[in-house]
Write a structure and sequence with these properties.
six-stranded mixed sheet; five-stranded mixed sheet; D-Maltodextrin-Binding Protein, domain 2; 36% helix; 12 helices
Length: 329
């Protein structure tokens, strides 16, 4: 039987390793896998739909999947997920000591539809009760100028964004022209030890553990997007892909938990991973709809509130039905 050829682009993840190398194979599918930087995946899939499947920012995917004529669907396969209280960087001369001090300040992010910033603005608005219109928003490249928004926005009333093309967030933060940056990667000025640039929440780990204990939400940054035309022509493919991804994930977790072999160059990693099972459960890094329902739904709320998604979505709106059923061809 001839297999369905599909092209996929992602960056390098251990939990994708076995499906990428062919140790795990999706039934009936021949994957041509491209390893690219995640920004290249996002840009090429967003602009030209160059791949059948691609890693994509959850925020940017939210815009595209909620268009009236959307040509994408998602797989509940998680490329990257991270808590983001560590992502607030401030210039100490701005006098910002707590989150409410951002009122009247200038705050930047690489894009408005930047998943890390979406999660933290959502927390500010819904948990802290802050008015996002009382902050001056800036969009610019993180460590180099020139980055632009990749998806259309429908900003809420009162929200304005100043786009700066010739300077980076790192440069402006170090110079004191930006009070705060909400950014996934630490800005260069912070990594270089600039004396005025610090994290707003040095206790971010404790905050993130408490947030998860209280909400059960583990923020998702990147997922796998799929052309809807592929799904419509081959409705079995999504299930078979999901099954293979999930098997690859389980094998990755087994490697991390192995107490007998040092598979990764990090001391005590299996011990730490077993401790994390007490927090996140035996699956440790679950894929799927139900295991992550609260997180999918929270992003549906946040992206709609922030003018990124065209409508508030549920998991049933963005993933194929019955995707977690048995593999078929």
């Amino acid at each position: 039987m001839t297999k369905l050829p599909l092209t996929i682009a992602t960056t390098d993840y251990d939990h994708f390793r076995d499906i990428r190398t062919g140790a795990v194979q999706p039934e009936g599918i021949d994957l041509n896998w491209l390893l690219l930087g995640h920004h290249e995946c996002f840009a090429r899939m967003t602009a030209n739909r160059e791949f059948d499947l691609s890693e994509m920012s959850f925020a940017k995917f939210s815009t595209q999947v909620t268009r009236p004529d959307s040509d994408l669907i998602g797989l509940p396969v998680i490329c990257s997920r991270l808590f983001r209280f560590s992502s607030f960087y401030v210039n100490r001369k701005s006098g910002i000591e707590r989150i409410e001090d951002l009122y009247g300040k200038t705050v930047g992010s690489p894009e408005w539809a930047h998943s890390a910033a979406v999660w933290m603005r959502g927390w500010m608005q819904n948990d802290v009760g802050m008015d996002m219109a009382k902050i001056r928003w800036v969009q610019a490249g993180a460590n180099a100028p020139g980055r632009e928004e990749k998806v259309e926005l429908n900003l809420p009333p009162g929200i304005e964004i100043t786009r700066i093309k010739d300077r980076s967030l790192s440069d402006m933060l170090a110079a004191g022209d930006l009070d705060c940056a909400i950014i996934a990667r630490p800005p260069t000025c912070f990594l270089d030890g600039h004396p005025d640039v610090v994290r707003l929440f040095p206790d971010f780990l404790d905050r993130e553990e408490r947030q998860y204990a209280e909400t059960g939400v583990w923020p998702i940054m990147h997922i796998v997007a799929m052309k809807k035309s592929v799904h419509e022509a081959h409705p079995w493919a999504a299930r078979n892909l999901y099954s293979a991804f999930d098997t690859s994930r389980r094998r990755s977790v087994e490697r991390i938990l192995d107490p007998a072999v040092s598979r990764y160059p990090v001391a005590w990693l299996p011990i730490y991973a077993r401790k994390m099972q007490q927090v996140f459960g035996e699956e440790l890094f679950p894929f799927g709809v139900e295991a992550n329902r609260k997180t999918w739904e929270m992003m549906g709320l946040y992206t709609y509130q922030q003018g990124i998604a065209h409508r508030q979505f549920t998991p049933e709106d963005i993933f194929p039905a019955t995707i977690e059923t048995k593999v078929i061809i």
